[in-house]
Write a structure and sequence with these properties.
The protein is an alpha/beta fold and 257 residues long. The protein has nine helices and six strands, in the order βαααβααββαβαβαα.
Length: 257
């Protein structure tokens, strides 16, 4: 697989690791409208983040919600751009240490498992904006000053979808912050492990700064056959019936004896 360069004059070194666990491709549940109780969820997550996840940080959770609401309500469900969220993003700046950025594409479940084991990694979902809005759906109504809790269009319907626009800006900001050595998890079990139309391929890759990023470590996750690495063990926890997982378990037991 050939990866495009980060920038035309980029000095970033790109290596590809072919590793071999099987992915669980779970379908995303459909939703008919804005997530119920979204205000309480977002504000509650904000207080949780500043109290338990990143204690010591302070953000005005109520004002963040107000700016989010202002960006979405009274706008058509396909007419919310990144610029609509500018005030909200200005209220939640964050800076992360170098060498800890983890990007992913079509490997969501594996990414969370990997980040849980190697706790020094930070993903977009670990930022404040990612923590607040992860797994939520929202859209407004041009003729009403409230969210539409009955029907929201799919992401693919328009490029100015309110959910897509927020994640596009969040992904760009996260990539622009990246520095030092970064890691990328790609799905080698699908036709295009690297897809230019994905959020990583279309937004994050081009937003990496070659003056800040020294090294890109790409892990392409394919099938359960191959060397016994950490990611294989993570996948075997989810499916112990895989032949390679049983072989791994037997090998580890023999070593223990």
């Amino acid at each position: 697989m050939i990866m495009p360069s980060v920038k035309s004059a980029c000095s970033v070194i790109v290596t590809i690791w072919i590793i071999v666990p099987q992915l669980c491709l779970c379908p995303v549940q459909a939703t008919f409208g804005t997530t119920p109780n979204i205000k309480h969820i977002v504000i509650g997550r904000c207080f949780t983040y500043t109290t338990l996840v990143q204690p010591g940080l302070w953000y005005d959770c109520e004002e963040i919600w107000r700016q989010f609401e202002k960006a979405v309500v009274q706008h058509a469900s396909c007419n919310v751009t990144e610029e609509h969220y500018c005030e909200m993003f200005n209220m939640m700046p964050q800076v992360w240490p170098c060498d800890r950025f983890l990007f992913w594409s079509k490997t969501r479940m594996l990414m969370h498992s990997y980040a849980a084991v190697f706790r020094h990694f930070w993903t977009l979902e670990d930022t404040l904006v990612g923590f607040l809005f992860n797994d939520l759906i929202w859209c407004g109504q041009e003729e009403d000053s409230d969210f539409d809790f009955n029907s929201c269009p799919a992401w693919s319907t328009c490029r100015t979808h309110p959910v897509y626009s927020l994640w596009k800006r969040a992904s760009q900001n996260f990539a622009e912050m990246a520095c030092g050595n970064i890691t990328v998890l790609l799905n080698g079990s699908i036709t295009n492990a690297f897809n230019r139309k994905s959020m990583f391929g279309s937004i994050e890759l081009d937003s990496l700064n070659p003056q800040r990023v020294n090294y890109v470590n790409i892990k392409v996750v394919t099938n359960p056959e191959g060397p016994h690495m950490t990611l294989v063990i993570l996948q075997c926890i989810q499916d112990l019936n895989q032949p390679s997982c049983q072989m791994l378990a037997s090998s580890m037991l023999q070593q223990k004896v």
